[in-house]
Amino acid sequence: MSKSCISCGKTYQKGMNVSRKGQYKAKGGTGSKISRRTKRFFLPNLQHIKAAINGVVKKVYVCTRCLKANKIKKA
């Protein structure tokens, strides 16, 4: 199983690297063109922490948004 937030379930997202070539119109060119696309992943900011879940201390992955909102209490 891939890493995901224990609280909200946030995990990686798929996307593309977009490579452009050509000079932009604002700089006097004919505009930029997309030359190639390659697949990539956008990774969330997950922290590996010790958290008290149902009274038991476990090591879990939690995203920083959930940590900041105090959805998970550190042990």
Key descriptive features of the protein:
single chain; mainly beta; elongated; two-stranded antiparallel ribbon; 75 residues; 7% helix
Can you walk through the features of this model?
It is a single chain. With 75 residues, the chain is mostly beta strands. The chain is 7% helix and 47% strand. The protein contains one helix and four strands. The chain has a two-stranded antiparallel sheet. A two-stranded antiparallel ribbon has the order 3-4. A hairpin with a 2-residue loop joins strand 3 and strand 4. The chain starts with 12 loop residues before the first strand and ends in a 7-residue tail after the last helix. 7% of the residues are buried. The mean pLDDT is 93.
Structural class: mainly beta
Biggest pleated sheet? 2 strands, antiparallel
Mean pLDDT over the full residue set:
93
Total DSSP helices: 1
Would you report the number of β strands?
A: 4
Low-pLDDT residue spans: none
Would you list the SSEs in sequence order as H and E?
EEEEH
Distance between the termini: 24 Å
Oligomer: single chain
Q: Helix content range of the residues, please?
A: under 10%
The rough form would be described as elongated
The neighbouring-strand order within the major sheet is: 1-2
Beta-strand percentage range: over 45%
What Rg, in angstroms, do the CA atoms define? 20 Å
Map the helices and strands:
Blueprint: E1 13-21, E2 33-42, E3 46-53, E4 56-63, H1 64-68
Task: Write a concise synopsis of the structure shown.
This protein is mainly beta.
